[in-house]
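WARN no homologs supplied; continuing
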Amino acid sequence: MKKTQKKLIALAIAGIVSTPVWAQSSIQLYGVADAFFKYGQWMGDDTAGIDDGGLAGSRIGFRGEEALGSGLKAVFVLEQGVNLDTGKSCCMSGADDRYNGGSQTFARQAYVGLKGSFGQVALGRQYAPGYFIDDYDALLSATASPQSWLSLLGNLTITPNSPARWNNSVTYNGTFQSVTFNAIYSAGNQEIDRKNGSDYQDDDKYGLALRYDNGPLKVGAIYQGVKFSKQNVADGYAAGDETQKEWFLGASYNFGMATLAGSYQQGRDVMGRKDLDVDLWQIGVIVPVGAGNIHVAYGGEKIDRVRGFTDHEYKPKSFSLAYTHAFSKRTTGYLGYTKIDYDDMTWGDAHKLGQTGYDESRTGKVDDTDLFFVGMSHSF
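OK structure emitted
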């Protein structure tokens, strides 16, 4: 009996001692489950079936913070992408796969940092400023967005996709009234000099962003740089040793009856290849209809011709029309259509740009993409 009483007293004391700790810290489980049915053609190939992440990439994550006193907090995020069509994890980019072995657990984000009135400083695998451009996109950076499609085609890192997730990075994010400042430096995947002559700085990346958000008006400016060398370019695609330099300007304005959004961006010496320059623009409108919205967007891209590519300047274009319906604050249904015209791009040049697909002669033209889709997204 006495032993039981002692155990109860010990447990009570432990509970009292630990209460202040729990009161100052918290851990949250969150995520997105998003899947859609697609039907049509992808780069000329017939396709039909289930795919993941029509509005937002499916994921499961943990975020937490602990109050350290004097307004300072310790924070962390561990976030894993999930493909609902297969149940597998996702979201590593090709370059990360080549230089880093192991599983793809928490490949979307994984960081720890400090937050206070000064903003937040964090270390780990994190989003570059160019990932957050949905405020200037009528398709809200959804899979069907012309900006999303075309930025991937042009190998730009200012994109709402995996090329804007960077390993071994330190970030600063601060919001002061209507102005937000973001900065990132990534050591890339090579952190030591190698005997074959490659430099540990060959794949460093950096980025800056300044955003203004006040009432109906939102404006953003972003700059990012990615160092390349002939040793760290994938599979010999347009190998170069220049620094890829990108800038982006975007804006949106909510008129009440509709929101107009658009952006313009440039990439210079893309993939480290001198004079491989890419220009991309897009514009669109969001029109509220009851509990839903109609989204329309159109975009175009110019990919300059360079040595090693077919002597042709490509000007692909993309158009998307979608409807989203809010069933609740956390559940949204959507449907729509998207088209991409590749401007007679050859399969040989498509492969040099890192696009997947197959044409034995590589002289054949890439056919248009025409996709219809319908799906559902749920956040928790």
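The CA atoms of residues 246 and 267 lie 4 Å apart.
OK
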